[in-house]
Amino acid sequence: MKSKLATTIIADISDSTPFYEAMGDDQAQKLIQFEIDRLREAAMSHGGIPVGQKGDDVLCYFLDQDAAAKAALEMINKPHGTLLSVHAGVHHGPIVFAENGIFGETVNLTARLAAAANPSEACVSESVASYLSPDIKQLLTPIGPLHLKGVSDPVKVYSMRPPTDGLSTVVHTPTLIDRGLSRGSQSSSFTLILYHDDRSWRCREGDEIKIGRSKQCDVVMPQPWVSRLHAVLNMKNGKLMLTDRSSSGTYVKFENEREVHLKREAVMLAGGGLISLSLPTHHANARPLEFEVVRR
User: Fold this and answer.
1) Residue 211: which residues within 8 A CB-CB, separation 6 or more?
2) What is the pLDDT of residues 188-246, one digit of tens each?
3) Cβ(275)–Cβ(291) under 8 Å?
4) How are the residues of the chain apportioned to helix, strand and coil, as percentages rounded to the nearest 5?
5) C-alpha dihedral over 280, 286, 287, 289, to 10 degrees?
6) CB 200 within 8 A of CB 294
7) Integer distance in angstroms from the first to the last C-alpha of the chain?
8) CA angle, residues 289, 147, 190, in degrees to nearest 5
9) Residue 276, beta-bridge partner list
10) 129-164 pLDDT, tens per residue?
11) Helix H or strand E encompassing 33
């Protein structure tokens, strides 16, 4: 097997499961395959070579880093009228060629970067960002060192979005409730209640709450240091999870415990505490949200 240095992209369709559930397997598969074909064509139009597809993602490699970045921008730029969003990872390093594709740590790290990216975003490693031309580099926003699953050392990562990018539409809207009536009124086994000012939101099994600066989020926090999509709360199989999706991180302070700083990471919530976007909960400008997990 031979190897060479290359820039790899893994572009993955975001949240495709609801389409299978809403449209049925045949119709959803046609829609997704159409998008997969678009991703492959975008790669080839910038000199990339698609080498594999696994599920709803496309793997390709490039010999030029600027070309790879331009291809990634085209891939994540949501075409007008489409229901699907794409997220991607971009990394540079040695790849190993085999009969049925390319392999190696570069490909593995690219997959981890793709997993860390939001819809309509590419997570780009320092190994790519350092060599990009100024016009492309200006589209990068530093996220900082991320602890990626299966990678021993933190990886310096940048966020890249199309210049006119917007956020994807919220699929599920949680119930907005009056603060005075919310405590202790849940009928499900576990419920997370999120409080901010005089408003409250309830998150139960299958629910999702998106928090950020965008008006498309369920909880809108207009402060300039808040990312458009900053964090996501959801409950699945009885586990209440908070996932940071921001460029600057999310702080969680549990009752009577130390504060945790998340950067593109997730934590399970229990009991009660505070959630602060970008700033530590004790910072003078922080406007933390209060949460509690109740069982009835």
Assistant:
1) 217, 218, 219, 221, 230, 231, 232, 233, 275, 277, 289
2) 477 889 999 989 999 988 899 999 999 999 999 999 999 999 999 998 888 889 999 99
3) yes
4) 20, 40, 40
5) 0
6) no
7) 59
8) 40
9) 251
10) 999 999 999 999 999 889 888 888 889 999 999 876
11) helix 25-45
